[in-house]
Amino acid sequence: MKRLKVILLTCLLMFALGMLCSPLYAAEKVLTVSLDPADAGLDTFNPITSNRTNNIYYLIYDRLVEMGADGVIYPHLLKSWKVSDDGLKITFSLREGVTFHDGSKLNAEVLKWFLEKLATGKSKYMVAAVESIDIKDNLTVVLNLSRPDPNILYNFTSSFTGIPSKQAAEKYGDEFGRKYVVGTGPFEFVSWKTGDEIVLKKNLAYTWGSALSDNQGPAKVDKVVIKEILEDSTRFLEFKTGGVDILENVPTLFLAKLKADPKAKIITMPSSTNFHMVMNTKREFLDNVNIRKAIALSIDQNSILKAVFQGNGSPAYTYLIDRLPARKVDAKYEIHFDPAKAQEIMAAEGWKKGSDGILTKDGKKLSLALWSKSNSDERKIAEIIQAELSILGIEVKMEQFDPSSIKAEFKKGQHDLVVRSYGWDNADILEWFFNSTRPGYPTVSMWHDNESDYLMHKAMTRSKNSDERIQNFKDYHEYLLSQYLWAPIINTVNNHGIGSRVNMPSAPKFKILLGPPFLDITVD
Amino acid sequence: MWTYVVRRTLLLIPIFFIISVVVFALIHMVPGDPIDSLLGPGSTAADRVELTAAYGLDKSLPVQYVVWLKKFLTGDMGQSIIEKQPVLDMLVYNAPFTVRLGLASLFISFFVGIFLGIISSAAKNTFIDYISMIIALLGVTVPAFWLGLILMLIFSVTLGWFPVSGSGSLSALVLPAVTVGLGGAGLIARITRVSMLEMFNKDFVLLLYAKGLSKPAIIFRHIFRNALMPIITIFGLRLGWILGGAVTIEIVFSRPGVGSMLLSALYRRDYPVVQASLIALTMAVIIGAFIADIMYAYADPRVRDAYK
């Protein structure tokens, strides 16, 4: 009987020890993230068919190359690349041993398939210069271009160019991207409740992290739960109570409160968001470049930065974000706050202030409508601009629209001034907003000018190499600035709230927080 | 009684058609279209034309309506233009969350409202009456989204009793249900109070007192039963109010549901989803009113006798 007791006790102890030591019973390390609401409401995780992506793509998919926070392009799925002297051939050598989450292998055949698919999808413009693709060996492909495209490598850093599994995409058809999402990234897709949460688990086979993370894989957290919470106050309170570990893009309203919280850490990363005010060049008064100039010079970027963004960001003096080389235009083209000069211009144009303080000429009052979306930052900026333009003597009437209807209104061309923002880290955004073939939207300024279009085509399609492209975009940018089509306002930064459970060993080297930096994160 | 039920049921058919026309026309009259959300950078005018035609949005509104209605009546609510999912699947996934929240809120609003109404009428013009009516007034006037945030601050952030948001557990339902429920309780409390006070002055109550019945027995067994009629009437109407409140509260508490689905579809002008969720919500309100009518007829013989 005694022996039986000893045996039983030993078994029990061994079982308890086994339970403690077995990784199966180890507590799962779950990282919970509150997604930036601007990124919510995605329709698919299929990079080929999508016209809109979000940062979660950077966790599920890997790209050929990656963009660092320093603006430099790093190899990732590509071991190396080589551009021929005439710029018409690019040889891509793939990294060896990369597998998709479904076990299939990444090789030259898959890459060729992906590039050909990309050329038929919504992001076809990214590979518009590619004429044909040759497979040289199992890991090498050659892209034959119809013209040199110094921007093509940049395109391959985009979330739209994350490489999906050919095997899975063909197997699941239309369901790929929604029910089934298969990439080579550090995290595998588990589930997606639209408008609620996306669950990912770590890719145990992952060993091919880029130089943008200290850990090359697998990830140190087991699971990532990404919550779509739209209401800013709720996001903040979830973070405060530990319901989420990472608050992606802290709402400006709560930034000061979070900075004062000793338990929270704030990581500031470069952003690609620029706020500006568009002027409709086809409207009365605004068809005069001097009036546009006076308006642009009346906007005090610093006061808006302080009042709306609590100093988080930098004043924008051009149409591009600060880290782009084409942003570095000749100083004389930069648009700085200069109210005295603005008054001088209006006087020279023959405008005089009436008893009500409004500028008048030939019996006409200078009255303009200022539109904005109803979301808080753009509306707040519009309120300040209204006050600043009243000092110049312009009567400004504000109107607000919801995001979807404002685009339809632009197409009618009845707008005067519009506070807007964009998020893009390439100079080709100038083509998107100033190409005269798309008046209304996206060319909200209704800009139509032959010289401008010539410079745009030169920059977009006739640059032989990167330096030439930068110079061409600089020329195009300077010309646009000289026409005062926008009043530049602010370039923002991204502030992310990091909870007390989260350890991040170093400042993220990737351009955004989601993606390679998640390989280095551990949770207590 | 059955004649009345059949008549009221038949009346639902024209109501449905009127609602469907109004909903369809309204969403299409609002500026903006889903194609804006579908077109990405670098897309051309030809891409726009192609996509517009692919979703049948190039046809005239009456034609679009007839096509949609035909499908709708056969149970095909179409496919979400943005999310590429059958709308019915989306509705089936989201509706239980809203129904759960709606029922819990309805229960709280009636429970709290009737309780406050009874005690304030029983203790008329006393401190208890004033306090109850102040609570009722606050319930009616305080905006639900603000109340939601205040409840979050107290019960989630300070006390840590309930999660801030989500829908994963029963505890996550408490704060949103209380937020919507308290808003509805105010009106019910006031109606219960007035109705009860009216009964207090009736002769039969005097008789009951004379018979020596205790006050609680008179209040609960006799006065409350007779005062119930107006409360039943507002039951159905409250259902609509509760569902309307749930739409906002789903966003504040980040809960899935028909409200969240409607709002995100509305922003992206996802017509099939907006149409289906609006019709589902309005039909729920109308069915609520229908149930109230039936209950009213059941409780009041005068109504059902009129249809004999």
Radius of gyration of chain B (CA) equals 24 Å
What amount of the residues of chain B lies in strands? under 5%
Number of strands of chain B: 0
Q: Mind summarizing the main beta sheet of chain A? A: 11 strands, mixed
Question: Under the CATH scheme, which architecture of the largest domain in chain A would be assigned?
Answer: 3-Layer(aba) Sandwich
Largest sheet of chain B: none
Mean pLDDT of chain A: 91
Q: Could you tell me how far the N terminus lies from the C terminus of chain A, measured between alpha carbons in angstroms?
A: 45 Å
Query: Helix- and strand-based class of chain B?
Result: mainly alpha
Which residue ranges of chain A are poorly predicted, with pLDDT under 50 across at least 5 consecutive positions? 17-25
Most residues in contact, chain pair and counts: A-B, 41 and 43 residues
Morphology call of chain B: flat
User: How many strands in all of chain A?
Assistant: 22
Quaternary state of the chains: heterodimer
Principal-axis shape of chain A equals globular
Summarize the helices and strands and which ones pair or pack.
The complex is a heterodimer of chains A (524) and B (308).
Chain A: H1 2-21, E1 30-34, H2 57-60, E2 65-67, E3 73-75, E4 78-83, E5 89-94, H3 108-118, E6 130-137, E7 140-145, H4 152-155, H5 166-172, E8 187-193, E9 197-202, E10 223-227, H6 232-240, E11 246-247, H7 252-259, E12 265-279, H8 289-297, H9 301-309, E13 313-315, H10 339-348, E14 352-353, E15 359-361, E16 364-365, E17 367-373, H11 376-392, E18 395-401, H12 403-412, E19 417-423, H13 429-434, H14 450-461, H15 466-482, E20 486-498, E21 502-503, E22 522-523
Parallel strand pairs in A: 1-10, 1-11, 17-18, 17-19
Antiparallel strand pairs in A: 2-3, 4-5, 5-7, 6-7, 8-9, 9-10, 11-20, 12-19, 12-20, 13-20, 14-15, 15-16, 21-22
Chain B: H1 2-29, H2 34-38, H3 45-54, H4 61-73, H5 87-122, H6 127-141, H7 144-158, H8 171-200, H9 203-211, H10 215-252, H11 258-267, H12 271-299, H13 301-305
